[in-house]
Amino acid sequence: MTLTSFGPANRIQRSAETHPLTWRLRDDGEAVWLDEYQAKNGYAAARKAFADMDQDAIVQTVKDAGLKGRGGAGFPTGVKWGLMPKDESINIRYLLCNADEMEPNTWKDRMLMEQLPHLLIEGMLISARALKTYRGYIFLRGEYTTAAKHLNRAVEEAKAAGLLGKNILGSGFDFELFVHTGAGRYICGEETALINSLEGRRANPRSKPPFPAAVGVWGKPTCVNNVETLCNVPAIIADGVDWYKSLARDGSEDMGTKLMGFSGKVKNPGLWELPFGVTGRELFEDYAGGMRDGYKLKAWQPGGAGTGFLLPEHLDAQMYAGGIAKVGTRMGTGLAMAVDDSVNMVSLLRNMEQFFARESCGFCTPCRDGLPWSVKLLMAIEQGRGQPGDIETLLGLVNFLGPGKTFCAHAPGAVEPLGSAIKYFRPEFEAGIAPASAAVPPLAKPIVVGA
């Protein structure tokens, strides 16, 4: 994994003024432990928050900075914090870090946890102070064994230094933090499914309302934030709202910086901290280096497998939620994937939909039955056995599984790339439809959903 800076390919050094998330990274890729982290101004923001700011001031600062969730949904963090109850008699509250990074083609949180574990802990400590939560959990993807080891060591270092536990920094505030490794389900990225899993239940999303801020872990008020979101908090507290907003490019409605990346057959696949508002073309050409020799860019996804495909002409879109929405899809996690001209889109979509069908919790009918149905149709088309009407059926599934028609956002994210692939590459799907004379009558070849 590579991580460069604002300038192309290592020409400009990262600095605290421009790279709030990554300036402390070591060149050798090793983890930054407590002594080095504190030597690099670590926990200074926490000390400021505890000494000079009350809880409401911390919440208002984060809200004014315009920080939004970095897990994909992009909900304003300060607004989410403001939903937590004000009633002082509710003395049991929880802060959960969503570190269940199972979105295909996304590894940004892994880098932060493996190399800067204390940045996440400091972000959670300040957030806990703002939310009056006495206990926190990092719900970690089970396969992230190195991250688990580094986070547990960092937690013990922070405890020994009086930065976690009882009477933190002499303030009278207590905060315990635990690392919890999950059992490996994509659906745990949905915050209420994560809560169910943490409680030892099946990882099904919950009905909302009530929202976690009212009824969360073990029935208590709970706030769930993504790793990268929480890692932004210390810099906002330390350096202020105006500075944080100034980091984004003109035209961006999202503030600050974002970990963005590119994978696929590009010359320099990697991960970079960049200002919101850079264009997809800058990310693709200046940082990822364009396609490897012998390959052409056919399509790209801007932020994980659950975002729609875009064409090369869409590369001039600005990388922020509204900028990507203008070309018809979502920013997602901000880690893009290049699809080269050797890839058959039907095969690619069949692979994706197999993943999403397998990871469905099975709670609601459209997702439980619709996704396996799409897989069967795509398999038939991939093998040249598609029947007339199959493409229309797939488009019908895209509609039936769209936003607002399923219990959670899993199915809408699963079918978004399918709908865009048919939109832009329909001839590849039509090529898998057998001639009418060779097609099997639909009633003679039933589709058994879930078989």
TrEMBL record:
InterPro entries: NADH-UbQ_OxRdtase_51kDa_CS (IPR001949), NADH-UbQ_OxRdtase_suF (IPR011537), Nuo51_FMN-bd (IPR011538), Nuo51_FMN-bd_sf (IPR037225), Nuop51_4Fe4S-bd (IPR019575), Nuop51_4Fe4S-bd_sf (IPR037207). Its cofactor is [4Fe-4S] cluster; FMN. The keyword Ribosomal protein does not apply. The keyword NAD applies. It is an enzyme of class 7 (translocase). It catalyses: a quinone + NADH + 5 H(+)(in) = a quinol + NAD(+) + 4 H(+)(out). Transmembrane segments: none annotated. Coiled coil: none annotated. Keywords: 4Fe-4S, Flavoprotein, FMN, Iron, Iron-sulfur, Metal-binding, NAD, Oxidoreductase, Quinone, Translocase. Its EC number is 7.1.1.-. It comes from the Bacteria. GO terms for molecular function: 4 iron, 4 sulfur cluster binding; FMN binding; metal ion binding; NAD binding; NADH dehydrogenase (ubiquinone) activity; oxidoreductase activity; quinone binding. Residues 346-391 form the NADH-ubiquinone oxidoreductase 51kDa subunit iron-sulphur binding domain. Belongs to the complex I 51 kDa subunit family. Composed of 13 different subunits. Subunits NuoCD, E, F, and G constitute the peripheral sector of the complex. NDH-1 shuttles electrons from NADH, via FMN and iron-sulfur (Fe-S) centers, to quinones in the respiratory chain. This is NADH-quinone oxidoreductase subunit F.
